[in-house]
């Protein structure tokens, strides 16, 4: 039989594992109990895949708490569950024990997954600014020297490969992924590989002229307009940014807007991210 101390340690070990692997989980704690209840003080953990560690007493109360926890994980929102061990009345859970329990469900969602395609000046600056904001940062490049640059944050995942097409095909992207393209000469290759893949945000760091040319190419290649419309470029809020660090702030500000579901500006999309897009596209970003 696992001791109470052993169960608590297992909960925290699993929480640490989920955090390290960037998987969402919920911690359930009994914060109040009255009368006859299976447990008066207990905790348990539920992972995003439904695995559980620990128990708050089992029975109908725990089943209902787990149902509410699964919903809280889906909503990425912590909550409080109240239940009375009775068959009728407010918060009744269909039990005759007569007690009552209040449970706090603390949700720890996945950190936003930020994929930086290219390890040049601007993407390094974005990585540096994104890590303290709790992004799970992945940097892809076909040059090991770029990934080994001393300005690349130690906390980000550095992924090397022979081509961006291969690197992108191996990525586990989903509808919450955030992707920024800023390569040397492989922007179109990267864009072709990314457009069919799911992502919450797909941005390209390039001049308006370059973006217009790419969109024309995509149309000529028969890419669906709804796919092309997913591309956000020029990327970043219009704050007149020029340096890599300023551009990083403008890009992350737009990503945070996308994550938090903030309303767009009345104009729909900021026009430019800095004063001299052509200069940025040809020198700073590379």
Query: For this structure, what is the CATH homologous superfamily of the largest domain?
Result: NAD(P)-binding Rossmann-like Domain
What's the N-to-C terminus distance? 59 Å
Could you name the CATH class of the largest domain?
Alpha Beta
Q: SSE string, helix = H, strand = E?
A: HEEEHEEEHEHEHEHEHHEHH
Average of per-residue pLDDT values? 86
CATH topology of the largest domain: Rossmann fold
Percent in helix: 25-40%
The chain-level structural class is: alpha/beta
Spatial strand order of the main sheet: 8-7-6-9-10-11
- Secondary structure tally: strands: 11
What gross morphology would you assign? elongated
CATH architecture level-2 label of the largest domain? 3-Layer(aba) Sandwich
Low-pLDDT segments, ≥5 res: 262-286
Residue share in β-strands: 15-25%
Rg, Cα atoms, Å: 24 Å
Helical region count?
A: 10
């Amino acid at each position: 039989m696992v001791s109470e101390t052993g169960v608590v340690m297992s909960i925290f070990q699993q929480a640490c594992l989920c955090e390290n692997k960037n998987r969402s989980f919920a911690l359930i704690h009994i914060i109040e109990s009255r009368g006859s209840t299976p447990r008066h003080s207990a905790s348990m953990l539920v992972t995003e895949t439904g695995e559980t560690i620990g128990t708050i007493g089992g029975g109908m109360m725990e089943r209902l708490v787990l149902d509410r926890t699964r919903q809280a994980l889906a909503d990425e929102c912590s909550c409080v569950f109240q239940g009375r061990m009775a068959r009728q009345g407010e918060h009744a859970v269909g039990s005759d024990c007569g007690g009552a329990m209040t449970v706090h469900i603390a949700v720890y969602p996945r950190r936003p997954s930020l994929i930086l395609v290219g390890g040049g000046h601007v993407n390094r600056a974005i990585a540096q600014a994104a890590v303290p904001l709790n992004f799970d940062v992945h940097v892809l490049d076909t040059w090991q020297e770029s990934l080994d640059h001393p300005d690349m944050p130690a906390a980000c995942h550095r992924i090397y490969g022979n081509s961006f097409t291969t690197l992108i095909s191996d990525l586990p992207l989903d509808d919450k992924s955030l992707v920024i393209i800023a390569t040397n000469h492989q922007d179109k290759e990267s864009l072709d590989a990314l457009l069919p893949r799911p992502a919450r945000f797909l941005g390209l760091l390039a001049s308006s002229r370059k973006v217009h040319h790419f969109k024309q190419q995509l149309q000529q290649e028969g890419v669906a307009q709804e796919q092309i419309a997913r591309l956000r470029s020029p990327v970043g809020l219009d704050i007149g940014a020029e340096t890599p660090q300023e551009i990083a702030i403008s890009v992350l500000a737009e990503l945070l807007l996308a994550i938090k579901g903030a309303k767009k500006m009345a104009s729909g999309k900021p026009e430019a991210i800095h004063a001299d897009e052509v200069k940025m596209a040809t020198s700073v970003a590379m």
